[in-house]
Each structure stands twice: as structure tokens, then as C-alpha cells.
Amino acid sequence: FKPAETSKEKITIGILTGDLHHLALHVAIKNGYFKNYNLTVETRTYNNGPDLMLDFVSGTLDFAYVGVPPAMTARANAMASGNVTNLPIAISSVNLEGSAIVVNPSRISTVSDLNGSTIGTPGAGTIQDILLTIYSQQNNLTIIKHEAAGVSNLPLFYQQGTIDGLIAWEPTPALTINNYNASLLLTSHDLFPNHQCCVLVVNQNLYNQHPDIVQKMIAIHEAATSFISSNSTEAAQIAVNYTGLPLSVVQTAFNTVIYDTTINRESCATFLSALISLGRVPSLNQSQVDSFLDAFIKQQ
Length: 300
Fold this sequence. Notes:
About 45% of the residues lie in helices and about 20% in strands. The protein is an alpha/beta fold.
């Protein structure tokens, strides 16, 4: 990990609240990787991916750690509206899988029990919302979605009995198991094996005008991801420090998250096809999936 010579630059990065998927960013900050590249970082936190992407396409953010469905939806809809300056470009994977459905065991014990149940999600258009929709269609289930204004509200809704269970990014499922005696019903591996979850995206304007900064961000992210793989104990402690959660919760959550920098294009295509079928990206049709991904994914 050799820093490059550069003048000091400031970058703004969007992240999701309490998201264990974004551990690489916190590792990079804690270990001084940005300083090694003479970059200063401002982070901005959002309730979910769609909220984050609203700011992103307005030009507020340089980079973001975000679920791939919200990123693709934002890109397609921005293009349709004529905003082609601040489009998101995916330059690296952040993680694969890493979500789970946890439920009240007195109400739900099998997949068939999901039929007619109320399951909380972090919001419409989030990757968890899309995963649940795809899974329910494949299994002929009718699931009532309860969309939270913020992922942190989901365990509270569960505790109050407002919902029968929830699907969310880690560590929210692990927290609900630990604090409220929920049961793990399905991991996102069960829903969609090896699926792309979060990606690192860059603003297209920055991508075109400052490729040097983009290369530094990629190097930092790759170094941080490698650190997680090689130093799981230290990485877990960093996660504890920024989430404020017990180590046991973080360790439980780690069981479902795959930290990997290689984008799974095939699963991105599946998500995009689903978004088109669901009418979330009305400007696209199924014949445009490959050309869209060619422009969206620019992993080197």
C-alpha cells in the first residue's frame, strides 16, 4: 500500500446509517489510508440508498457506498430526466450478500408463514425491498411491506409488534436477534446466492475530470477490504467502535457479509431486469440491460 504523490484534495462520500457493509470506509479512515494519499474526507449519512442517491445525482456527493439497485435506479431516472452530469458509476464492489430476514418465531417458523405477514424494510427501492419482492414473486407469497423512514426504526417496530419480521442490511438483523429474541429465517444468500449488494460509486463528472482521485479512492478501498480479510479481529473492533454495538452482534452479522471488491455483473443484470419489470425504471426495457451495465460498471 504505497501512497501516491498528490496535492491535498477533499472528497465527500455518502454512506448509510449504521451499515456494517460499509466497514471498509471506516477501516480506511481509522488506519489513515486517506491521509496517506493526502485526501481529506467528509462523510454524509443517509437513511437508505434511495435517499442517498437523491443527493448524489444533484452533485452533492463525489463517491458513495450504496446498494446496487438504488444506484442503477438513480442513474436510469437521471438519464431520462436529462441529468447526465452527476450519474453514478460503479468502480468497485463493497460486499456481496449481507442482509437477512428475521422474524417473530411465535408467528413465523417457515417460509410459507411469510404469506400474509407484515415485513419491515428500510424503504421502497432499497436492495432489501427488491430482494423481498423478487423472492415473494418466485415463491407466490403475498407479503405486506412496512417501509421504515430509517433502518434504525425497524427493531423498534418489531419490539412493538407492528411488524412480524424485517429484512435489512447488517447489523440490524443481528441486533434484532440479540436484543428482541427474533429468529433468523433467511439470509440474503438464501434469497439470491452471491448477489451484489453494495457498490462504490463515483460521480461521473469527477470520474471524467479527475481520474487520479478516482484511482486513489479505488486503491484505498481495496486496501481497506484486504485489511478486513486479513485482520478480522481488528476489523470487528472498528465496527464496534462506529456502530456502538456489542462485539457479539457484530460477529453474528459478519457471518452473512462477504467483503469483496469484484462486482458480480450477472446479479446486477438480474436486479436491473427486475427493476424494469416492476416499473421502477420506466425509461428502460429488457433489451437495454447489457448496454446500461456497460456504462454503469467501470471496474478496472
